[in-house]
DNA sequence: CTCAAACTGTGCATCAGCGCACAGCAATAA
DNA sequence: TTATTGCTGTGCGCTGATGCACAGTTTGAG
C-alpha cells in the first residue's frame, strides 16, 4: 500500500496548525494552489478526509487532528536534528576515529590522551590493524600512515616528521657478545630481521644487502615480536629511535640514517578534512609531533 | 534559515539504512539519480556531508547516523499514523459529535446512550444550542434538525418520523379551570404561547390565528420555559406528543394534527457521511426512531 | 445595503525535477 | 589476466508539479 509523501504530510500539518490554506502556503513558501493539491493527494492516498473545507479555511477532522499531533513532534524532531547537524560541524565533540598500523600505537596513544583531555566531549576510537583502513569507506576520520606518499584521489595527506630508525642491541646482548667494532665486524654478530623478502622498509633492504644471511639468527613476521627479540638480547635489530629512548636498556649500534627514515603521513578524507573536529586534532597532532624530534 | 524538505530527509534515511543509493531508489520507487540529487540538496542546505561516497555505496557520517535514528522513529510514527487513519474510516471508535436544538435533547439522549453501549469505544459529544451548528465547519458529525428541508449544498439530509405536537394542559390546570368543551370555548381559557411573532412553527401560527390575544396569558422566548409553564398549570399549550406520554400529568386538549407536524431531519456532511462510524449511528438512530411512533 | 478583505478553487503556461541512457569505477569470479 | 556484476555519476529530453491569474464565496465593517 502506497505510503504518503512526507512533504505532503508537512503541508497538511501546517494547514491543520494554521487553519487556512493561504496561511500554510505563506509559511511553507509555496503557492496556495500547491497546498490544495498536496492535501488532495494526501487524502486520496489515505482514503479519508483530513479537513472540512469551507470558504473561511480548513478545519481538521479527527484524522487531521491526529496528523497534527504526530507531525508536530516530527517538526520539532527535524528542527532539532537540523540545528544539531548544522552545529556539529563546528563543535569538537562526538566520535573521533583514528587509525594507524599497530607499530606506532605507543607513539600516538599519549597524543590521543592529551587530546581527549583538551576536548572532554570527544570520544576517541583508536583502530589498529595490519590492513590499511579505508578513509573513503568512512572507516576513520584520520589515518596515520607510514611509508610512501598516499595517492588516493579523495584523501588529503600532510607530512609529519620522519620516523627515524637505528640499529640497537640490548645491554644483555652486549654483555654476552660484546659490541661490534665496525661494520666489518657485523658478520660475527647475531641479527634480528623481518622474515618477508617482500618487505620494502629501507632499513631492512639495507640489512639484507649488508649482513650475511648466516649472521641473521632470528626471523619473524610480526614487527612487535622482532622488537621484543632485540630487547631480550637475542640479537641486534632495528628499533625506532623514539622507542629506544623510552626503553633505556638499549645500546645504539648504528645511529639513525636519513636513508632509513620512514615518512609519516596524516591522511584525512576531503569531506571530513574541513570540519573543526578534525582540524583540532590535526593541529594537536602536529604540535605533539614537534616533541618527537627532541 | 532554510528548513530541509521532508522528502529529502526520507530519501537520506533510506540511503543511510540500506547503504546504497540504488537500494534506496528501489525502495522509494524512484530513479537512483533522484536519490543522488536529494542527498546533494539536503547536504547543501545542512552545510554538512551526510555520507561518504564511494563506488560501493554510501556510508553515513556521524551526521548521517544521527539522521538515521531520528528518521527511523519518524518513519514508524508515520506508518502508524497512516494505518490508524486508514483504519479509522472503517472503525466505529473515537469521537462522535451530535448536535440538535435543545428542545429534543430528551428524545436523543436515550438513543445516544444505547449507541454508546453498542460501541463502547465511541466517545459521544452531544452539543445543543439555540444557534444552528454548521456541519461544513466541522462542528459535528451529525446534526438533528427540525423544520424545513435542509438545503446546504454539501450536506446530505435524511428524513426521520415527523415530530407530532398536540395541545395539552396539566391536571392541575383542569382541576382549576376545567376542560374546554370545544374550540369555541377556547376564548374562556388561558393559553401559553411563544413570544416571537416571527416564529414559524405551524402550530404557533395556528394558535395565533385561532386563539384571541386576550386568552394568551403567558408568553416567553424559551420553549423549555413554555413547556414548564404548561406542566405547572399556568395554561394550555403545545407539547410534543412523545413528551406528553412521558410526563403523565398532562391531559390532551387537542390531539396532534398533521398540519402541526414538524419534519425531523438527520443531516451529515458529505465528507463524513460515508464513514462507517457515521453510518453506524445513522442506522441506530433510524432504528430507534421507529419506536417514537408507537 | 454596499464595499472591501480574506479565503478557496481552477484552467493554463512554465519550469524544475524526474526518468532515461550511458559512462566510469570497483570488486568478484573464472 | 578478462569478463561480469553492481554501484555511482552526469547530460538530455520530457513530464508532472508549480506559480499565476482570475473567478467565486463568505464575513465583517461602514
Protein described:
Chains A, B: Belongs to the LysR transcriptional regulatory family. Chains A, B: Keywords: DNA-binding, Transcription, Transcription regulation. 2 copies of one chain form a homodimer. The first copy, chain A, has 294 residues and is α/β, with parallel strands linked by helices. Chain A folds into 3 domains: 6-88, Winged helix-like DNA-binding domain superfamily/Winged helix DNA-binding domain (Arc Repressor Mutant, subunit A, Orthogonal Bundle); 94-162 and 262-293, 3-Layer(aba) Sandwich (D-Maltodextrin-Binding Protein, domain 2); 165-260, Periplasmic binding protein-like II (D-Maltodextrin-Binding Protein, domain 2), CATH 3.40.190.10. Helices cover 45% and strands 23% of the residues of chain A. Chain A has helices spanning 6-18, 21-28, 32-46, 62-88, 105-118, 171-177, 202-210, 223-231, 241-247, 270-273, 276-293, and strands at residues 51-54, 57-60, 94-100, 122-128, 142-146, 155-163, 165-170, 191-194, 216-220, 237-240, 250-254, 262-269. In chain A, strand 8, helix 7 (202-210) and strand 9 form a beta-alpha-beta unit. The interface between A and B is large, with 49 and 50 residues.
Amino acid at each position: 500500500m502506497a505510503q504518503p509523501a512526507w512533504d505532503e504530510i508537512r503541508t497538511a500539518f501546517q494547514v491543520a496548525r494554521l487553519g487556512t490554506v493561504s496561511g500554510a502556503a505563506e509559511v511553507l513558501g509555496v503557492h496556495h494552489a500547491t497546498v490544495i493539491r498536496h492535501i488532495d493527494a494526501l487524502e486520496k492516498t489515505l482514503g479519508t478526509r483530513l479537513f472540512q473545507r469551507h470558504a473561511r479555511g480548513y478545519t481538521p477532522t479527527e484524522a487531521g487532528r491526529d496528523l497534527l499531533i504526530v507531525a508536530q513532534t516530527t517538526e520539532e524532531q527535524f528542527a532539532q536534528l537540523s540545528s544539531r547537524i548544522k552545529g556539529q560541524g563546528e563543535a569538537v565533540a562526538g566520535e573521533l576515529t583514528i587509525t594507524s598500523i599497530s607499530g606506532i600505537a605507543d607513539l600516538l596513544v599519549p597524543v590521543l590522551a592529551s587530546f581527549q583531555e583538551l576536548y572532554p566531549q570527544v570520544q576517541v576510537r583508536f583502530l589498529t590493524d595490519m590492513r590499511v583502513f579505508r578513509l573513503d569507506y568512512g572507516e576513520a576520520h584520520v589515518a596515520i600512515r607510514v611509508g610512501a606518499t598516499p595517492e588516493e584521489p579523495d584523501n588529503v595527506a600532510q607530512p609529519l616528521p620522519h620516523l627515524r630508525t637505528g640499529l640497537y642491541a640490548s645491554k644483555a646482548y652486549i654483555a654476552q657478545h660484546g659490541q661490534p667494532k665496525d661494520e666489518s665486524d657485523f658478520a660475527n654478530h647475531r641479527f634480528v630481521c623481518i622474515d618477508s623478502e617482500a618487505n620494502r622498509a629501507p632499513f631492512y633492504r639495507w640489512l639484507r644487502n649488508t649482513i650475511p644471511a648466516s649472521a641473521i639468527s632470528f626471523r619473524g613476521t610480526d614487527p612487535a615480536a622482532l622488537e621484543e627479540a632485540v630487547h631480550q638480547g637475542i640479537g641486534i635489530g632495528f628499533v625506532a629511535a623514539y622507542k629506544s629512548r623510552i626503553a633505556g636498556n638499549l645500546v645504539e649500534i648504528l645511529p639513525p640514517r636519513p636513508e632509513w627514515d620512514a615518512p609519516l603521513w596524516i591522511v584525512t578524507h576531503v569531506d571530513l578534512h574541513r570540519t573543526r573536529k578534525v582540524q583540532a586534532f590535526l593541529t594537536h597532532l602536529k604540535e605533539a609531533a614537534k616533541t618527537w624530534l627532541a
